[in-house]
């Protein structure tokens, strides 16, 4: 059958406030594909199997970072060794960090889907474009951004409010920064204690960290880009062991915004394919693409499959400073860092 298969999370905050979103997306898609609502992981597994049998050309996801990583995890479990179809992040969530990092145009799901349909129907003359990024396998989950310590504390504080938006995230960061400067304490500055082993025998030592974090995209949210070496080597991620104080980290925020290294006095860095985190407490509390998880015992983070992410939903859009690829393939040469030229 082919076509576009769209997953919508009816329990996402935006879709709860707009229950007819799925109907509108289905009407917009028409004969070009199908829209399915996934209310549980079991639903997602059944939908993934259906989409696989239908040989869909594009997997659209209406939701934010959390919906994206849950969907990708469910589809990778079903597709197993088969590559996923190119993914269209249609946004619609409160956090869209990965979409921002790879150059997906801004807009509402309806508008992005309409642009995607127009491009899809015209793909014979103007092929769809994508960028490629690896996901990390983090325990049983797949995602692009991982973090413990203050990353986990930030998301926990962010989730305390019913107001979840980029503005609220900025307020959480501003309040936490002010608390650090005034030395009044904040759970956003919660630290992580443990060590990290790497596949080559090296390690981040057993100590107190503000955070251990990793990414296969450069951003972590609000435009901050700590993982500026994410594509330095093929099939690897950029991991940081941030051991500075909360105050030292706040003072380094301008450098992180500009994708500059924090320096050895503030953080350890590693380009790795595999890392094992051992928490002193025996439980690793962490964040994967904005969702909070916990894992008893050592937690393994390893490089996962490479996925294709559509970046050109709007006519004339070109992702700045990123290399893209034509759907269907035209014999492009693969760069050693995994970028298709």
UniProtKB/TrEMBL annotation:
Residues 1-142 form the DAGKc domain. The keyword Transferase applies. Residues 314-341 are annotated as: Disordered. GO terms for molecular function: kinase activity. InterPro entries: ATP-NAD_kinase_N (IPR017438), Diacylglycerol_kinase_cat_dom (IPR001206), NAD/diacylglycerol_kinase_sf (IPR016064). Residues 323-335 have a biased composition (Basic and acidic residues). Keywords: Kinase, Transferase. This is Sphingosine kinase enzyme. It comes from Sorangium cellulosum (strain So ce56).
